[in-house]
Structure formats: structure tokens, C-alpha cells
Design a protein that fits this description.
With 74 residues, the protein is mainly alpha-helical. The chain has a domain of 33 residues. Helix content is 58%, strand content 0%. The protein is built from 3 helices and no strands. Helix 2 crosses helix 3. The chain is elongated.
């Protein structure tokens, strides 16, 4: 980069070719993160989430997804 360059998008109309290994690495990281996020929690937590989800009229999976998206309980 040159002095004063803000790191914005390139001015070229065609983006450069992506490294083929980068896509497979991102795919691997995504699968691993998805698996870790949906790992089954301890029984007590599942029961508590299920009870709260039913009280809100949601399924367990919908409630868990809301927790993961918001980072806090409803």
C-alpha cells in the first residue's frame, strides 16, 4: 500500500481470481463453527431452554437460534 491509501475496494471492474484453497478453508471453518455452535448442551440447560421456548410459543431450535443470534436470552 502507498502512503495515504485507505484500503478501499479496488477500482478494477474485474476482481482478482481467488485462491482455490481459500474457499475450501472457509468451508472447513464454517462447518467446524456450525458444529460447535449446535453442540448439545447439558441436560439441565436443554430442559430450561425447552421450558422457556414453550412459554414463548417457539420451538427449541428457534429459541436456541435466537440466543445464538442475539447473544442473550429472551
Amino acid at each position: 500500500m502507498t502512503l495515504g491509501h485507505n484500503g478501499g475496494p479496488p477500482l478494477d471492474p474485474d476482481p482478482p481470481e481467488e485462491d482455490p484453497g481459500a474457499a475450501s478453508w472457509r468451508s472447513y471453518c464454517w462447518r467446524r463453527a456450525h458444529k460447535a455452535a449446535w453442540k448439545t448442551p447439558p441436560r439441565e440447560i436443554v430442559l430450561r431452554r425447552l421450558e422457556r421456548a414453550e412459554a414463548l410459543g417457539m420451538t427449541y431450535k428457534e429459541y436456541t437460534l435466537e440466543i445464538m443470534e442475539r447473544g442473550r436470552h429472551l
